[in-house]
Amino acid sequence: MAKTIITCAITGAIHTPTMSKNLPYTFEQITEQAIAAAEAGASILHLHARDPENGKPSIDPDHFMEFLPQIRREIDAIINISTGGSLTAGIEERVAPALRASPEMCSLNMGSVNFSIHPLADRIKEYRFDWEEAYIRGSEGNIFRNTFSDIAEVARIMGPHDVKYEHECYDVGHLYNLKFCVDRGIFKAPVFLQFVMGILGGIAPEIDNLVFMKRTADRLFGDDYQWSVLGAGNAQMKLAAVGAQLGGHVRVGLEDSLFISKGVLAESNAQQVTKVKRILEEQGNEIASPDEARAMLGLKGADRVAF
Question: Gene3D superfamilies of this UniProt entry (predicted)?
Answer without folding.
Answer: Aldolase class I
